[in-house]
Amino acid sequence: QVQLVESGGALVQPGGSLRLSCVASGRIFSIYTMGWYRQGPGKQRELVASKTGGGSTKYADSVKGRFTISRVNARNTVYLQMNSLAPEDTGVYYCNAEHLGWSYWGQGTQVNVSS
To answer: How many CA atoms, within 13 angstroms, populate the side-chain half-sphere of residue 10?
Structure first.
């Protein structure tokens, strides 16, 4: 069982930056592929970025060049650095841990991009 706790969501103006954090319980954090998903108003949940234990990354086309996912295995933590935020980035951001078909979710953190 893995428990995930996100933090860092806030109201930010367009063009601004935020860093989301997700702390995981457990002693074998490094084996999980960690991902950030988001669900905007009236939209389905979508993958934003993911990073495997080996360091391979994947990004949604809409965030490439603006968002960066990183992880510190020694701290059981994954981050999402979000720059040049736009109103369409608004939504609830969820942390996900996945390994061999097992998938765990955090409770989500709200990001609002508005002037």
So the answer is: 13
Query: In this predicted structure, what is the pLDDT of residue 30?
Result: 87
- Per DSSP, 4 falls in state E
Give pLDDT tens digits for 65-104: 999 999 999 999 999 999 999 999 999 999 999 999 999 9
Sheet strand arrangement including 67-72: 4-7, 18-24, 77-82, 67-72
SS3 track for 30-89 = HHCEEEEEEECCCCCCEEEEEECCCCCEEECHHHCCCEEEEEEHHHCEEEEEECCCCHHH
The SS3 call for residue 1 is: coil
For residues 109 and 73, give the distance between their C-alpha atoms in angstroms, rounded to a whole number: 21
Cα dihedral 16/106/31/35 (nearest 10): -40
SS3 29: helix
Query: Cα 94–41–81 angle (5° rounding)?
Result: 40
